[in-house]
Design goal:
The chain has 347 residues and is α/β, with parallel strands linked by helices. It is 33% helix and 23% strand. The longest helix has 20 residues. The protein binds nicotinamide-adenine-dinucleotide.
Length: 347
């Protein structure tokens, strides 16, 4: 029996990527929708054979507790609403899959983790690239030693924020988005620096530049660059922006090989080039729907009661690092990491 999911928020990402991904999912089924727009909710429900009992709005959402078809609530709302809906879903006795960034502050992340523990339910953060075959193949090669020792990882993730696009309007408001390009798209690179290397940083530096007079950056920052130093000596460079031309690129420089992933964190069309002593080659890797893979991972974890690969702790690590990058940018000082975290499943 497939695991029933409710999607909360029928915005751009939910409508464009996640709802269609259920069509390719093997283990999950869309059984409820939660939306502020009754028309949109009814339209999506009708397309998926969901009756009126599977349609909720944000105020009557808690009634989902009485719907046994829903086992997982997938939160796809503006960032500041992730903690509230995660907690309400746990109170309703559901497991939660929550979009990145997990929340705007580490304290909120901790409360989400605690709420899941109290409820005895699973919390997974939707880091789709950790379920994507090109990224997984690069990780496999790194772990197998094919790149030698990693020396430098660079990531660049950015795009033009468009104030005319409703999906970008909340992203330019600090109270809803938590920050600018870094928690939104820079997070793909930040997360990749950790899952590609398999290490966690011990020191963080950050720099921020927002062009004066650009109304997009009244509340949130534009360009953020950071450096992470890892225990092995590896250094990661990251950049993100809401004003540079689209970039989604990871580069891993090892003592034996260099790997360039460009694009590296898109919904599809990933490309991986490997350059070593023998020459340069593009890897041939079968494209799959990474969103369906991610949803299936959660569904199987629920059905088999297994651990999720990207739990709340993984989301909190990035939110803590984002705040460390902000702190370093503000003070001009490096921030030493005084907490310990290790990814539990490294594959
Ligand atoms: P969006 O604005 O298109 O969708 C957000 C939805 O929330 C809309 O339907 C909106 O009506 C609703 N909403 C409810 N309360 C709201 C409020 N107070 N203010 C504004 N909107 C409100 O945004 P999106 O691009 O779909 O992003 C939603 C979430 O998904 C974000 O957390 C984002 O980081 C994440 N996301 C993840 C990926 C990914 O690849 N994993 C890609 C895009 C977005």
């Amino acid at each position: 029996r497939k695991v029933g999911f409710a999607v909360v928020g029928l915005g751009k990402f939910a409508m464009g990527q996640i709802i269609p991904a259920f069509g390719e999912s093997k283990a999950a089924k869309l059984v409820a929708v939660v939306s502020g727009s009754p028309e949109k909710a009814q339209r999506v429900a009708a397309q998926h054979g969901i009756g009126p009992d599977g349609i909720y709005d944000y105020s009557n959402f808690d009634r989902i507790a009485q719907n046994p078809k829903v086992e997982v609530v997938y939160v796809i709302l503006p960032n500041s609403l992730h903690p509230e809906f995660t907690t309400r879903a746990f109170q309703a006795g559901k497991h939660v899959l929550c979009e990145k960034p997990m929340a705007n502050t580490p304290e909120e992340c901790q409360r989400m983790i605690d709420a899941g523990r109290r409820a005895g339910k699973k919390l997974m953060i939707a880091y789709r690239e950790q379920y994507e075959p090109h990224n997984l193949e690069v990780m496999r090669r790194i772990r197998a030693g094919e790149l030698g020792d990693l020396r430098v990882i660079s990531t660049d993730n950015g795009r033009h924020a468009d104030p005319k696009d409703p999906a970008d309007q909340w992203r330019l408001q600090k109270s809803l988005a938590g920050g600018g390009a870094l928690p939104d798209v820079g997070i793909y690179g930040l997360n990749a620096q950790r899952y590609l290397s398999g290490e966690e940083p011990v020191e963080v530096r950050g720099w921020i530049d927002s062009p004066e007079g650009d109304p997009r950056f009244r509340e949130v920052e534009d360009v953020t660059c950071w450096q992470l130093r890892f225990p092995s000596g590896l250094i990661a460079n990251g950049s993100t922006s809401y004003s540079y031309q689209d970039a989604s690129r990871f580069e891993i420089l090892g003592t034996k090989a260099r790997v360039t992933m460009d694009p590296a964190a898109e919904y599809d069309g990933h490309r991986v080039m490997v350059k070593d002593q023998k020459g340069q080659q593009q890897l041939a890797i079968q494209e799959v729907n990474q969103m369906a893979r991610e949803i299936d991972h959660m569904a199987k974890a629920v059905r088999n009661n297994t651990e999720v690969k990207t739990p709340g702790e993984e989301g909190m690590q990035d939110v803590r690092l984002i705040h460390a990058i902000y702190e370093s940018a503000r003070t001009g000082q490096a921030v030493k990491i005084n907490w310990t975290y290790k990814r539990r499943i490294d594959a």
